[in-house]
Amino acid sequence: MSGVTVALIGTVSLLLLLFIRMPVGSSLMLVGGVGIYLIRPQASLPVIAGEIFNQASNYSLTILPLFILMGNLATISGMSRELYSAAYGWFGHLRGGLATTTIVSCAGFSALSGSSLATALTLGRVSLPEMQRLKYDRALSTGIIAAGGTLGILIPPSAGFILYAILTEESIGKLFIAGIIPGLMLALLFVLTIWLLVFANPSKAPRSTEVVPLSQRLILLGRAVWILCIIVLTIGGIYLGVFSVIEAAGIGAFLALLVAIARKKMNWANLKLVVTNTLKSTCTIFMILFGAFVFKTFISLSQVTPALTHWVEAQGFTAIQVVIVIILACAVIGTFLTGFAILVLAIPFVQPILLALNVDLIWFGVLFVVVIEMALISPPVGLNVFVVKSIAPDIPLETIFRGIFPFWLAMLVAIVFLLCFPQIALFLPSMMS
Amino acid sequence: MRVVRLAWCEQQLNRLARLFAAMGGLAIFCLMGINIVAIFSRYILNDPIFGVEDLLAVNLTVFVATAIAFGGLSQSNISIDVIKFFAKSALLRFTDFVAQSLELLVVGYVTYSLFSIGSCGFACGAITSNLSIVHTPFYYLLATAMGFYWLVILINLLNNLIGRTGRFSNNFTES
C-alpha cells in the first residue's frame, strides 16, 4: 500500500473516529500511530513517545498555561465586572447600548484571556442578566455573547494562535500582534451589526438609561486601569520587543495574581478554582497537541503533501484561489468539527501547499483563526453556543443560533476584508521591533 | 458487588486526582515564579540566569503531566458530539463502547511507549541542553499521568458496559 493511500484511509478513519465521539487528541494519536506503524513500523514507538515528550517539555509552550492562568485570575479578581461597568458608562446610553457594551467588554477581556469559551462564559454571566432585565430580544442578546466570546481567540493572547504557531513553526509574537487590528475590526463589525439590527427593529434593544456624566465615566474607566496596565505591559511589551512572549505571559499572570490578592479574592476556594480550571484547559489543548504532532509526522512520512502540492502546481492555481478554497472548505467543515480539530487536521495538509505558493503564513494564520471563530458559533457543534446555553438554559438553541447568524455574516465580511487587504493583519507585525 | 468495586476504584482515582491537582497547582505557580525571577534577574540585575529555559521546560512537563491526569478524570478531552443528532441511545452506547475501547488501546500504547523510550535517559542523550537534566523522571511522570488516564477510561468503559453512571468528580472546588 502506498503512503498516499495510507494517508487517505487514515484521514477517513480519523473523521469516522471523531464522528463516534472519540476525543480529538486520542483519535489523532491512534490514526497517526497506526499510520506511522504501517509506513515505518520501527518508528512508531519512538515517534509517539518523542513527540509527546517534546511538546510537554517545549519551552515555547510555557506561555499556554501562563496565559490560561492569567485569564482565570482575571476572572476571579472581578476585572470582567469592572470592564463591563466602564464600557457601560461610555456606551450604555446608546440604542443597543448594552449589546455594544458586551462586545466592547468581550474585546477587552479577550486581551486577558486566550479562550473564547472563557470570554463568552465570563462576560455572559455579567451581561445577559442586564440585557434580560431591559427586555432585550432573546436571540440578539444570546447571539451577541456567543459571537463576542469568539474575539477571545483573535485578540491576543490567543490559544488558537499559539497552536497554529507551534504547528507551522511561525513566530507566536508576530501572530499575536497580527491579531490586534483584525480583532478590533471584527469587534467594530459586530457593533455595526448591532446598530443595523436595532435600526431595522428598535424593539430588539430598548434604550436603557440616561447618559452617565463624564466625571462618572472617567471614574469607571479609572477602576479598569489594572486591566489596561496588564494589556499594555504584556501585548505592548511583545510589540516593542521589550519582553519575549514567554516573559510577557509570566508578567501578565503575576500582575493578575497581584490584582486578585489586592482585592482579597485569592481565598482557598478561588485558588482551587483557578488551579483546576487551568489544569483542565491545559489538558484539553495539550492532548490535542500531542495527537496533532503524531498525526503531522504520519502525514509527512506518507508523502501525501508533496503529491498534493505537485497537483496544485500542475493545475496552475494562484495563491489567492487556493487560500479561498481552503477557507471555504474549513468554514464548511467548521459546521461539524470544532475549531481546534479543524486546525490540527488541516494544517499538516495545507502548510506545504501554502509554502510552495509563497503565501504569508502570518496572514493565513489570522484568516484561519477567524474561520475557527466561525466554527465556534456554527450549528450544530458551535461550542460557544453551548456555553451561552449553559448560562441561559430557558432559551432554545434555535433562538441562539438565529441570533448568531448576523454576527456570522459579520465574520464573513471580516474574512473578505482580510483577503482583499492583507495589510490589515500584516501592518503591525511589519512594524515590530 | 461489581458496582461496589467500581465505586471504590472511582473513589481512589478521585483521591489521586486531588494529589495531581495539588502538584499541578505548585507547578504552575513555580512556572510563574521562575519566570518572574528570571525577568527580574535579566532586566533589573542585568544578570540573566543560566539554564532558566531548562528549568521552565521541566516544570512545564510536570504541569502538563498533572493536567493530563486531572483533566482526563474531569473529562477535559474534547470530542465532537454530532452523532447524537442522528443516533438513538442504544447505538450511542455501542459507539461509545467502540470509542472508549480504542482510546484505551491508544492511551495504553502511549503509556508503554513513554515508559519504554524514557528509560534510556542519559545514554541516549535525553537531557536538557543547558543544565543536562536527565529526561527520564519526566518521561516517567508523563507515563504515570497517561497510565492514570488509562485507568479512568477503563472504569468509564466498565461503567458503560454495565449501564452505570460513573461518579468521577469533575469539580473539586465544591469538595
Task: Provide the succession of SSEs of chain A.
Answer: HHHHHHHHHHHHHHHHHHHHHH
Helix content of chain B: 55-70%
The first-to-last residue Cα distance of chain A is 50 Å
Rg result of chain A: 22 Å
Class based on secondary structure composition and strand pairing of chain B: mainly alpha
Biggest interface, residues from each chain: A-B, 62 and 58 residues
- Overall morphology of chain A: globular
Strand portion of chain B:
under 5%
What general outline of chain B do the C-alpha atoms trace?
elongated
The SSE string of chain B, one letter per element, is HHHH
Q: Residue ranges of chain A: pLDDT <50 for 5 or more in a row? A: none
Instruction: List unreliable stretches of 5+ residues of chain B.
Output: 170-175
What do these coordinates show?
Chain A has 433 residues and is an all-alpha fold. Chain A is globular and about 70 Å long. Chain A starts with a helix and ends with a helix. In chain A, helix 4 runs antiparallel to helix 15 and helix 6 runs parallel beside helix 8 (138-150). In chain A, 78% of the residues lie in helices and 0% in strands. With 175 residues, chain B is mainly α.
Concise description?
The complex is a heterodimer of chains A (433) and B (175). With 433 residues, chain A is mostly helical.
Question: How is the secondary structure organized here?
Answer:
The complex is a heterodimer of chains A (433) and B (175).
Chain A: H1 3-19, H2 24-39, H3 44-56, H4 63-76, H5 79-91, H6 97-110, H7 116-133, H8 138-150, H9 159-168, H10 172-178, H11 180-200, H12 214-223, H13 225-240, H14 245-262, H15 268-302, H16 304-315, H17 319-333, H18 339-356, H19 361-376, H20 383-391, H21 397-420, H22 423-431
Helix pairs in contact in A: 1-2, 1-15, 2-3, 2-15, 3-15, 4-14, 4-15, 5-6, 5-12, 6-7, 6-8, 6-11, 7-8, 7-20, 8-20, 8-21, 9-18, 9-19, 10-22, 11-21, 13-14, 15-18, 16-18, 17-18, 17-19, 18-19, 19-21
Chain B: H1 2-44, H2 52-73, H3 89-118, H4 136-161
Structural features:
A: mainly alpha, B: mainly alpha, disordered C terminus
